[in-house]
Q: What sequence folds into this?
């Protein structure tokens, strides 16, 4: 008998039929003898719908009010889910973030958890109930309703698993686990049985959309085993766990691509101390999320600086670069929308220096030009043209034999 | 400068356009120098939609979960309304029932207010904000979310007006006030400028749908002046206040009809002490809402008992009557769906015994048969055939000259 925290995302509870399927699954778990705590997101496209309504109502949308609005979606989902559980004979009670003891900071729309006072949830478990907790919400230290942000339900689940000392945190979603690459791009992509937290974090940073990075970090920090699995087929998925000394680290685990970024190049920057620093400080002050940075070797006292930013922040970033350009006497600023970041991730590359060479050669052999490179201890990322993205993923997935290896 | 609690019902905030109109109205009030607290219901048909969803999800719908579900609707409305107010330059903050200090009993779906701890609302007012409070909700003494029931937003508004010692509680709705009768039946019906609490309560009991009786009782008990008015034309409506010694009581204020009831007759009941009492105790135990009761004069040791119940409770009431019939040896039980209760209400009838005679004669002159009669100090109600209802209202509205009088 285990204590499981099971998180269900929006598509997993999109309509009454889906809610009924989740309820049946929970009934099976209870029947097997497990204790279950559910964490539920808003149904389907509900959050988008609420955002659309807010857009129609006002151009002025204070964070406090947006959080009150958005969190209504999860309340709907938890109460309906509790009713569905009652309908299949499982005693259940819904809990808002506040009732479940989630205390957050006052940073609306993207609040951070400062404490989880899970006393009511523990009592409900002791009384034989399945607590159904609203994802991604809490109450701030100044007693306002807060939203943890998109993907916040994963964090709610992990934090609750930690607070309750659960045996595992199961993240149910519309994919059946973590794959060696996107199966829509490479049909021979395999689902992994296991992956380490470090690798999962690098994959997330490289553009893998699920699970949300914050929840993986939280799970890593607090040693909460994650199980990413399907709410549609109910088959076992991918475990994200600590590194296991008995297991040989895979050279390369996965190939991840990300086409959500654009590249900016500031050309002819005077190569004096503080110039690049000033540019990136101003970008940081404007909350521009800079990812890769490459600075060329200086020639004739000037250099080129390239970096990537999310598409939606490109106009803001360009504005800042233009103003820095004229202030510093740089030659010009250009941008490129159509790029992709292709990354290979694997803990085994730490002890194998040949990985990067294979990657660069493979891309070159396939006439794919590398525009920028960035590496970490267990990841190598290359910026390529957007048109080359899918082909780069295919050839890399093949050269590292990811379809054949099982781990 | 006054402190006004303004309540807006579902149709008044049904869509972004309506929310914008309400926001403009509040901005005008603020500009005039008034302090305003808003109480808002769920948008349009949202509550019905949530009930429909619950019906699709499960046949087992615990009150605790239903209340969690239903109250999500008002949260949506208050946050959107606050954003709309920000959009027109009015500082506003939304408050759930719990945040606004509404403590209730544990009676889910129909909770009673036990305390209003309006500290946060008062602070918000002092800080220059317009607090926007979710109608019909609170938190129970055992810390669960509760719903005050349909029409509960009126009660929220009145209770808040009392707690804040507001100058008036304005109930904005889709009609422009309280009328001498239903203008859809009698086009010459007039809106009253004023009516007493006693009269308003009798009208509500007689079938006048708005405002909700509970809120009128609360306002009466706590001396909160009510102003029933339009959220569409914004013109002044009807004040519901204490009786004013300087004002002569109107003989008849209004004619009200109600076709929501059915009549049950238990014939040939043995006229022994306790028989009728036993029947009505069993009906009360089953929460059947018995309205009018008439018992005929006994003949040969048996009597007929007739009473009215809401249509939706007729099957349950019939079942109880049948079982009582066989237990007591009564002759039979019959029911009639197609009846209407037509009532005249007016404080002046207390000192004028001729009112009833005029009513009965007028109905007789128009060949309208009276099936049952019930009276209070300021109301006379007659049960007539459903087909005669509109005609009865017309002739009574005319004979008491309600189109001509102004008060």
A:
């Amino acid at each position: 008998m285990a204590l499981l925290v099971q998180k269900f995302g929006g598509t997993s509870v999109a309509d009454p039929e889906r809610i009924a399927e989740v309820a049946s699954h929970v009934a099976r778990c209870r029947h097997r003898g497990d204790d279950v705590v559910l964490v539920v997101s808003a149904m389907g496209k509900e959050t988008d719908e609420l955002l659309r309504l807010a857009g129609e109502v006002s151009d002025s949308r204070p964070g406090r009010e947006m959080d009150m609005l958005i969190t209504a979606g999860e309340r709907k989902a938890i109460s309906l889910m509790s009713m569905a559980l009652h309908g299949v004979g499982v005693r259940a009670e819904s809990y808002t973030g506040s009732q479940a003891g989630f205390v957050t900071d006052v940073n609306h729309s993207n609040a951070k958890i400062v404490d989880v006072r899970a006393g009511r949830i523990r009592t409900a478990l002791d009384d034989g109930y399945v607590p159904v907790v609203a994802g991604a919400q809490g109450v701030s230290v100044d007693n306002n309703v807060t939203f943890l942000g998109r993907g916040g339900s994963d964090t709610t689940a992990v934090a609750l698993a930690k607070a309750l000392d659960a045996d595992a945190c199961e993240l149910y979603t519309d994919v059946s686990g973590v794959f060696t690459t996107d199966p829509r791009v490479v049909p021979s992509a395999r689902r992994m049985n296991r992956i380490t937290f470090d690798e999962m974090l690098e994959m997330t940073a490289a553009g893998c959309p699920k699970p949300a990075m914050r929840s993986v970090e939280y799970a890593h920090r607090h040693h909460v085993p994650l199980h990413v699995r399907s709410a549609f087929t109910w088959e076992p998925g991918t475990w994200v766990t600590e590194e296991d000394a008995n297991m040989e680290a895979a050279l390369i685990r996965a190939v991840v691509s990300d086409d959500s970024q654009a590249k900016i190049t500031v050309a002819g920057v005077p190569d004096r101390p503080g110039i690049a620093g000033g540019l990136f400080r101003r970008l940081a002050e404007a909350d521009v999320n800079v990812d890769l940075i490459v600075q060329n070797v200086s020639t004739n006292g000037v250099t080129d600086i390239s970096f990537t930013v999310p598409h939606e922040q490109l106009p803001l970033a360009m504005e800042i670069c233009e103003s820095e350009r004229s202030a510093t006497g740089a030659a010009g600023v250009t941008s490129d929308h159509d790029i992709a970041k292709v990354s290979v991730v694997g803990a085994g590359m730490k002890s194998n220096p040949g990985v990067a060479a294979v990657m660069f050669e493979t891309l070159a052999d396939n006439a794919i030009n590398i525009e920028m490179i960035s590496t970490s201890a267990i990841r190598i990322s290359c910026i390529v043209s957007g048109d080359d993205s899918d082909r780069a993923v295919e050839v890399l997935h093949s050269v590292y034999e990811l379809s054949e290896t099982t781990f």
Observations:
- Residues 63-87 of chain A form the longest helix (25 residues).
